[in-house]
């Protein structure tokens, strides 16, 4: 590839032999529709130690498609590790995240390129996956907007949440690599990207079709059904508190800071970490919510183990027995 690379499409993959070819081919089609500029795009795929035929499928495909660059881990290290590897190898000025069970619409890269060329002053761009339209139309800031400039405080205070298809400045990503111990919980890192970029341009055009509610979806790893998941949630929340506490205070977001501390208290109790829980209760002080009062009782009587098993049972019934969809 002699042309300068502008976009690096990043796809971590683990045991997706049933969907990875669809993902690969969608990127190839999107490149072909990029008005002769497909050579400015590379597709970096990092196999996270798959035990099925995923790695062989990607390797065979990459051999015939020069713009596909394939890297492979010898063991499963997690989505964040795979993302970091791809970011470190990226040659493009911009990175676009595309999950292995999702796929681009044919015009995806042309839509992204046209938007960025017409408004080049931003360092972070956001586009729409197909399944997020109900959220966008119900959100007070995004409702009815075909294009919207979003600010870092919009995300910090929770006025805007949900998922987007991100086009990130590669240098910003390299300054804020994902924590590989967490495997998921990428939201805290996107806040770091947003803080540095300051202004993000959201364009409500669908560029990605997403497959939701797979039984092996990585999203399910955020369900607090084991101590390992609970401890990862604690690490993510502690990181969020450490990184953004001063911003919450500076921007007058007392309620959001209290909710973050309340979430930490909740997870400390689930993990049986009563010393940490008591310290968080002292910080929360006179916070007066019904959940806070219940958590204080659980802490006083050291009933975190009972609380944890009740939560696990609730999640099992909700997602395994009742087959509730992931929102």
Task: Provide a descriptive summary of the structure in words.
- This protein is of the alpha/beta class.
- The longest helix has 24 residues, at 227-250.
- It has 2 domains: 7-209, Spore Coat Polysaccharide Biosynthesis Protein SpsA, Chain A (Alpha-Beta Complex); 223-321, no CATH class.
- The chain is built from 13 helices and 9 strands.
- Strands 1, 2, 3, 4, 5, 6, 7, 8 and 9 form a 9-stranded mixed beta sheet that branches.
- It starts with 6 loop residues before the first strand and ends in a 6-residue tail after the last helix.
- Keywords: Transferase.
- InterPro entries: Glyco_trans_2-like, Nucleotide-diphossugar_trans.
Write the layout of secondary structure elements.
Layout: E1 7-13, H1 20-32, E2 41-47, H2 54-64, E3 68-72, H3 79-89, E4 94-97, E5 103-104, H4 108-118, E6 124-129, H5 133-138, E7 147-151, H6 152-156, E8 165-169, H7 170-175, H8 187-197, E9 199-209, H9 227-250, H10 254-270, H11 274-284, H12 290-300, H13 304-321
Parallel strand pairs: 1-2, 1-4, 2-3, 6-9
Antiparallel strand pairs: 4-8, 5-9, 6-8, 7-9
Helix pairs in contact: 9-10, 10-11, 10-12
Pfam families: Glycos_transf_2
Keywords: Transferase
Domain Glycosyltransferase 2-like: 8-118
């Amino acid at each position: 590839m002699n042309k300068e690379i502008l976009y690096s499409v990043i796809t971590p993959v683990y045991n997706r032999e049933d969907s990875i070819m669809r993902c690969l081919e969608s990127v190839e089609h999107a490149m072909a529709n990029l008005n002769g500029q497909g050579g400015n795009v590379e597709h970096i795929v990092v196999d996270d130690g798959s035990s099925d035929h995923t790695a062989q499928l990607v390797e065979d495909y990459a051999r015939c498609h020069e713009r596909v660059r394939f890297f492979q881990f010898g063991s499963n290290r997690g989505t964040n590790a795979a993302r970091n590897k791809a970011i470190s190898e990226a040659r493009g000025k911009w990175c676009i995240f595309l999950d292995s069970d999702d796929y681009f619409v044919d015009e995806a890269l042309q839509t992204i390129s046209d938007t960025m060329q017409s408004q080049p002053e931003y360092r972070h761009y956001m586009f729409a996956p197909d399944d997020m339209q109900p959220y966008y139309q119900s959100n007070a800031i995004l409702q009815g907007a075909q294009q919207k400039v979003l600010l870092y405080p919009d995300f910090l205070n929770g006025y805007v949440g949900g998922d987007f298809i991100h086009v990130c400045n590669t240098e910003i990503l390299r300054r804020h690599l994902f924590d590989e111990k967490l495997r998921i919980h990428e939201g805290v890192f996107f806040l770091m990207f947003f803080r540095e970029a300051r202004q993000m341009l959201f364009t409500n055009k669908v560029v990605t079709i997403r497959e939701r509610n797979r039984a092996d979806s990585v999203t399910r790893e955020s369900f607090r059904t084991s101590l390992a998941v609970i401890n990862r949630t604690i690490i993510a929340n502690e990181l969020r508190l450490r990184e953004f506490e001063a911003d919450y205070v500076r921007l007058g977001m007392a309620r959001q800071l209290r909710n973050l501390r309340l979430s930490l208290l909740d997870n400390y109790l689930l993990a049986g970490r009563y010393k940490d829980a008591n310290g968080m209760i002292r910080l929360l002080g006179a916070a007066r919510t019904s959940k806070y009062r219940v958590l204080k009782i659980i802490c006083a009587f050291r009933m975190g183990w009972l609380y944890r098993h009740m939560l696990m049972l609730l999640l099992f019934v909700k997602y395994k027995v009742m087959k509730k969809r992931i929102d």
